[in-house]
Automatic annotation (TrEMBL):
This is Calcium uptake protein 1, mitochondrial. Keywords: Membrane, Metal-binding, Repeat, Transmembrane, Transmembrane helix. Residues 47-63 have a biased composition (Basic and acidic residues). GO terms for cellular component: uniplex complex. It is found in: Mitochondrion inner membrane. InterPro entries: MICU1/2/3. Its main location: mitochondrion. The chain crosses the membrane at residues 15-35. GO terms for molecular function: calcium ion binding.
Amino acid sequence: MAHGPQPPASRGYRAYQLLICGMLLAAMFNWKLAAEIWNRKTAVKAKQVESRDKSNSEDGEHSESEEEEDEDDKKGGGKVGFRDRKIIEYENRIRQYSTPDKIFRYFATLRVVQELPDGTSTSEVYMTPQDFLRSITPGVKQPEGQ
């Protein structure tokens, strides 16, 4: 209430102000994004080291598994989109609540067409071992175009 200049703030008060501002900034910081960027940089460094080691030991030969890993990296890291999540949820409900014949009809992918001598054809649907495993494993999506 004095009409003169205010005295300078003490060191303790300034430290308290800095602590509060730091806590406020830390609360607003996107830690998940920072961790993702940090992990991405370290993963790239690790891949570069691995590729150098492999190229030194194999003299530049590539195996099929390395090419598949490169293709997977280009596709976007395996994130599941909204549409795929909804399809997986639907398939999980089929697994849980449907009768065995409906599960078979949904998951069986092998169709055998047989031509008869009289010009007609009959077809039968079979389930491959991969189809069977897919039909009993929750969270696994039916392949596209099947």
